[in-house]
């Protein structure tokens, strides 16, 4: 959680990114001894915080709510309500239970008795995503880790950044990366065939690990304009890749702190908070500081290099930082991003890509390995396409790839059935009356067709339930069947009108906080599937695979630490 602690939230604290960062960001060196002294003002703040928590708990327990007639499960914790069930990494059965027992809208209890609406009703999901922002703890958590990037900002600042970045993630710009993506995927294939000897005999590889490495190499090239991973051996991984891959495991034990994030700025001085991060015997917190150090340092050094060269004269520079610096010079002063905002985008894009794309690809590999008929059908389409990877124009190659119908269907079906993001969080910023797609039954037995929500009401949008609703998708909703996206979808799908940016599904969210890079992710996933299936047959091993319901669903092997997806690869 380094950035807020090191910098605060204002651009004035980062007038010179390079010098400020080097002088104030977390270091492994021990802090001065006077930081260890807890001043009386800090004790007073702790007392005030404890009193505030008690007040909020009593108020939430005894206030009358417009949601009183909405049914929901009994809290399992006096202080944490239903949160241990909602955020249980083994909790895949909980969303099913809620849908079967309470329907598409259920009332739950959050921290200190706060009410939370757990929703998969498509009308409510649409209204919430298009109008309500994430709660402060979500936005400010991103701000703490990655600074003033897209995920860590709101309001006019977010709109300004989005306006500046949108052209960089439009198909017109992304098409230019197509040949690069195929080249890097081919490099990875060569390493598999020659470096690991799969040309001679099959071998089991951790495909989550390699998907993550390729993802981060593509991000470094397209965001920084530099290669950080040769992809030529198991041991050639760059410290940058190691650091980014450590981010999610380090963040998970810290998730308990997310609820306190909006109040951290009042918790003593910045120096005191920085001392806590270094000194508390909490390895995950210490690791997170070091992770952000590597990522931010990489972004800063790249920024400093690009500031000192004339990037305007080089039209071939298409990476995000170069194009952003060019665009930044051309806009009026009030629309310009400051240095800290530019640097922060790099960490934001890196974290966002690594959290989602390797895990989404892992699901696709898993589904294809356990459904060999689907795998063979997709391979037949790919081999028949026979792209000219050496001589094709990147725009032409992009269009050809996107035009493969079964490849597209496999992606859509995997992202529907096994979305890497199983839930989204939002908070009402106004009082609202929201109609339901289908009625639910209230506590008093009456039929409820609309819900009244007060400003400040928290929502958890159950993406997994919306994607597995048989009334939307049909009775075969739990079956992995890519053909559904080639055939005509049921009328109920159109009627439901889910607001997702990815073909009315929600793996990349929807509304003004939707993932800006979803077309980029789509290109990478299609390139990787095309490349792998052109060269290898994929099979599952006998390992006991577990999917963890983290913030992003991750694969692991029972009893083995770390993300693991063992896939047996056989050369064709």
Automatic annotation (TrEMBL):
Record-listed heme binding positions: 515
Q: What is its main location?
A: membrane
Q: Where are its TM segments located?
A: 35-58
Q: Which Pfam families match?
A: p450
Keywords linked to the UniProt accession? Heme, Iron, Membrane, Metal-binding, Monooxygenase, Oxidoreductase, Transmembrane, Transmembrane helix
Please give the cofactor(s) recorded in the UniProt entry for this protein. heme
For this chain, one GO molecular function annotation is: iron ion binding
Pathway field: Secondary metabolite biosynthesis; terpenoid biosynthesis
Localization per Swiss-Prot or TrEMBL: Membrane
- The UniProt record lists the keyword Glycoprotein: no
Question: What do the Gene Ontology cellular component annotations say?
Answer: membrane
Family the UniProt entry places it in: Belongs to the cytochrome P450 family.
- Which protein is depicted? Cytochrome P450
Organism of provenance: Mycena indigotica
């Amino acid at each position: 959680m380094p950035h807020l602690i090191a910098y605060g939230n204002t651009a004035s604290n980062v007038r010179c990114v390079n010098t400020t960062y080097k002088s104030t960001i977390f270091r492994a060196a021990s802090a001065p001894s006077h930081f260890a002294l807890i001043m009386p003002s800090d004790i007073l703040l702790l007392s005030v915080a404890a009193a505030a928590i008690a007040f909020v708990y009593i108020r939430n327990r005894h206030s009358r709510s417009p949601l009183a007639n909405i049914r929901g499960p009994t809290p399992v914790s006096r202080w944490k309500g239903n949160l241990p069930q909602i955020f249980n990494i083994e909790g895949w059965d909980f969303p099913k239970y809620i849908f079967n027992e309470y329907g598409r809208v259920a009332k739950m209890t959050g921290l200190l008795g706060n009410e939370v609406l757990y929703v998969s009703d498509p009308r409510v999901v649409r209204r919430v995503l298009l109008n309500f922002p994430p709660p402060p703890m979500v936005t400010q958590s991103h701000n703490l880790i990655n600074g003033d990037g897209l995920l860590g900002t709101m309001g006019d600042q977010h709109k300004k950044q989005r306006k500046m970045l949108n052209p960089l993630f439009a198909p017109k710009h992304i098409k230019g990366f197509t040949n690069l993506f195929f080249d890097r995927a081919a490099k990875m294939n060569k390493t598999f065939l020659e470096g690991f000897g799969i040309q001679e005999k099959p071998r089991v590889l951790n495909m989550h690990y390699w998907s993550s490495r390729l993802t981060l190499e593509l991000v470094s090239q397209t965001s920084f304009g530099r290669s950080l991973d040769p992809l030529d051996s198991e041991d050639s991984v760059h410290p940058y890749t190691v650091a980014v891959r450590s981010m999610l495991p380090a963040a998970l034990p810290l998730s308990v702190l997310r609820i306190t994030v909006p109040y951290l700025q009042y918790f003593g001085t910045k120096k005191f908070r920085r001392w806590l991060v270094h000194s508390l015997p909490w390895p995950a917190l210490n690791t997170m500081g070091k992770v952000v150090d590597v990522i931010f340092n990489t972004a800063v050094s790249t920024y400093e290099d690009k500031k000192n060269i004339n990037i305007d004269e080089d039209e071939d520079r298409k990476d995000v930082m170069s194009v952003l610096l060019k665009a930044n010079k051309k806009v009026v002063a009030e629309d310009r991003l400051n240095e800290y905002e530019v640097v922060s985008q790099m960490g934001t894009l890196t974290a966002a890509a690594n959290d989602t794309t390797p895990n989404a690809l892992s699901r696709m590999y898993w589904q294809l390995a356990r459904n060999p008929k689907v795998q063979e059908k997709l391979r037949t389409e790919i081999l028949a396409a026979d792209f000219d990877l050496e001589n094709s124009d990147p725009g032409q190659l992009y269009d050809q790839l996107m035009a493969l119908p079964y490849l597209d269907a496999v992606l859509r079906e995997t992202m529907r059935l096994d979305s890497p993001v199983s839930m989204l969080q939002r908070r009402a910023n106004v009082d609202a009356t929201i109609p339901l797609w289908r009625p639910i039954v209230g506590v008093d037995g009456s039929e409820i067709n609309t819900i009244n929500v007060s400003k400040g009401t928290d929502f958890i949008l159950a993406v997994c339930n919306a994607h597995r609703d048989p009334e939307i998708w049909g009775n075969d909703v739990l079956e992995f069947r890519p053909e559904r996206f080639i055939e005509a979808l049921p009328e109920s799908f159109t009627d439901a009108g889910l607001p997702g940016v990815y073909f009315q599904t929600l793996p990349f969210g929807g509304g003004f906080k939707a993932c800006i890079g979803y077309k980029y992710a789509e290109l990478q996933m299609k390139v990787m599937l095309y490349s792998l299936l052109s060269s290898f047959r994929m099979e599952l091993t006998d390992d006991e695979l577990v999917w963890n319901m983290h913030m992003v669903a991750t694969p692991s092997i029972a009893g083995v630490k770390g993300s693991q997806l063992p896939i047996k690869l056989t050369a064709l």
